[in-house]
Amino acid sequence: MGKQTDNLNALREQKALKERLYADTMGRFGGQMNDAYRNYNAQNHAISMHLMEREIQQAERLADAERAQEITEQVLKNLTDSGGKAAKDIAAELQKALNGLKL
């Protein structure tokens, strides 16, 4: 796994931890809170989850690009390692085409 995939997994774990912490806090103390404080906590949690979801979506895009790059590098390596002139020419043309793409 690459750096971006590790970051994505860490963000997902962090989101799950925040969800559990909020549920635990509200389960323990929600009955003791007045309506204003309960609503305040609910709104803060919703905002926090929205921001976390945006970070996760961005990390997913970066992780997908990273996986595509890893796959491409492996394909090029396999083509080059096969040794034939045609395979090397294909690898060179593929590399040129990929260099022109923006992921």
Describe the overall structure.
The protein is an all-alpha fold. 87% of the residues lie in helices and 0% in strands. The chain has 3 helices and no strands. It has helices at 3-29, 35-81, 85-100. Helix 2 (35-81) runs antiparallel to helix 3. It is rod-shaped, with a radius of gyration of 23 Å. The two termini are 18 Å apart. The mean pLDDT is 87.
Topology, pairings included?
Layout: H1 3-29, H2 35-81, H3 85-100
Counting helices, strands and paired strands, the structural category is mainly alpha
Strand content: under 5%
Question: How many E-type strands?
Answer: 0
Report the order of strands and helices.
HHH
The share of residues in helices is over 70%
Shape: rod-shaped
Describe the structure in brief.
The protein is an all-alpha fold and 103 residues long. The chain is built from 3 helices and no strands.
Question: Which descriptors apply to this entry?
Answer:
103 residues; mainly alpha; rod-shaped
